[in-house]
Amino acid sequence: MSRDDARARDLGWRAGSSAMPARARAIENVNDASMIRLRSTMLSERARARASGGRRSANADASIGSRAVGALRVRENARGGVGRRADDGGRNAGVDARAAADREARVAGPSKTSRGVREALERKAEAYERLVRGEDDDFEAREDERVVDFTAKADARRRERDDHDGIRPGMGMMSDDMRRELERREWERGVDEEEREKERAAIARRVVFDIERETERERDARDDAKRQREDDDAARRERLKAKFLRDLKSGRRKLAK
């Protein structure tokens, strides 16, 4: 049965005690003002701890946010560097340079390069030109005729860029440093909360111990005073009894005479 159920159940006057409740005794150095000061101190310490925890969380969030923005900018710059530009009609800037290098190689003749290398360069330049102009629609289907495996190169560039940024597959934009920072922040928050709980428990135990000690002293003093009153009453009764007996004997003597 819960406490609320016990309070709600009323057994009537037969279950109530006829003894009047004793008046609460004041404990030395413990009053309403001291309890108010204690409560105020506890609330101020709690507010200070929350404020310091909030500042640490804000600083950590700002640091993580700046790192995430930096990683995003690096990824965008890398993607923008290999993407097409609108001002040159969608042509890759490296195509013209490679075509010029191929023409120089053809002009140089067999003395500078071998015939097989020159033919490979020519095929590569023609493939690039067809891709840029959009004339080779069946290029993806003719995998065996490709001069360059563009899919493999794109995957290699993507893996290299992700490794450089510290980003792993399946983690989105969160790098290892960001993940460790989040774990460290969670750990610090847990440690701080545990320390605050221990401090609150210690304060509560200390207050309860002080109250119990004061109550024990008051109880001992009350018992001592009760025993002293009982001893005084017994001594007074003995004195009255002795006086009564003396008076009784003296009266009998007077009657005998």
From TrEMBL:
Residues in coiled coil: none
Source superkingdom: Eukaryota
Entry keyword set: Coiled coil
Chain intervals with Basic and acidic residues compositional bias: 1-12, 79-90, 155-167
Gene Ontology, cellular component aspect: nucleus
Keyword Coiled coil set for record: yes
Keyword Coiled coil: yes
Region (Disordered): 1-22, 79-120, 155-179, 216-235
PANTHER family, sorted: COILED-COIL DOMAIN-CONTAINING PROTEIN 174
Protein name per UniProt: Uncharacterized protein
Taxonomic placement: Eukaryota, Viridiplantae, Chlorophyta, Mamiellophyceae, Mamiellales
